[in-house]
Design brief:
- The chain is of the alpha+beta class.
- The protein contains seven helices and five strands.
- A five-stranded mixed β-sheet has the order 1-2-3-4-5, with helices on both faces.
- The protein starts with 5 loop residues before the first strand and ends with a helix.
- It comes from Nocardioides koreensis.
- This is N-acetyltransferase domain-containing protein.
């Protein structure tokens, strides 16, 4: 029987800086200190909650990966409860050592402890390895989450409006009615002068 070198524990405030390195790609933009401060807040909030956890995986005593677990619903419209495993990440040096499997096992155990029948997660669309790993664990695609800046979406929505709407927001029928009215008003004084 082989002894696993992977151990799991709840995150501690002292982990914030190292987790900021692990999750740098998925955290809000900012310098390392701001990201670590965000994570410290998340770790402290999770420590006092029954429906949230930040789980750290250690490999032979070193932080190797982590996952944020929270109880939510399948969607805002489907109120079936689910445990969402947010950003199960493993440092590159510790991949293929069972760390990711241990993190996802912690999500399943958390769901089982709470009597929740579903586990959900997300993998970056461009991460072939992560998506294959999740598929091997029987996690299939449920939806595609698409994200863009508010400004970018507003620009595209504006560009795709019909041209009459882009020009002052008036409908074509309103524009045509205004033109007819202007022509009628222009024609009236001339007719009155002759008669």
């Amino acid at each position: 029987m082989t002894r696993s070198l992977v151990t799991l524990r709840c995150a501690m405030p002292s982990d914030a800086s190292r987790l900021a390195e692990l999750w740098a790609e998925v955290l809000r933009r900012g310098d390392h200190e701001e990201q670590a401060a965000d994570l410290l807040s998340i770790i402290e909030r999770a420590a006092g909650a029954t429906d949230e956890r930040v789980v750290v995986a250690e490999y032979d005593g070193e932080v190797a990966g982590a996952v944020h677990l929270c109880v939510t619903t399948m969607t805002p419209l489907n109120l079936e409860p689910a445990v969402l495993a947010v950003s199960p990440h493993v440092f590159p040096d510790f991949r293929r050592h069972g760390v990711g499997r241990a993190l996802m096992d912690s999500a399943v155990s958390f769901a089982e402890d709470l009597g929740i029948g579903h586990v959900a997660t997300a993998a970056a669309s461009g991460s072939r390895d992560a998506n294959r790993f999740m598929a091997r664990l029987s996690l299939g695609p449920q939806a595609v989450l698409r994200v863009a800046t508010t400004h970018a979406v507003r620009s595209k929505l504006t560009a795709q409006r019909p041209s009459a709407q882009r020009a002052g927001g008036r409908q074509l029928t309103q524009v045509l009615a205004a033109r007819r009215s202007m022509r009628k008003n222009q024609a009236s004084p001339v007719g009155d002068a002759q008669g």
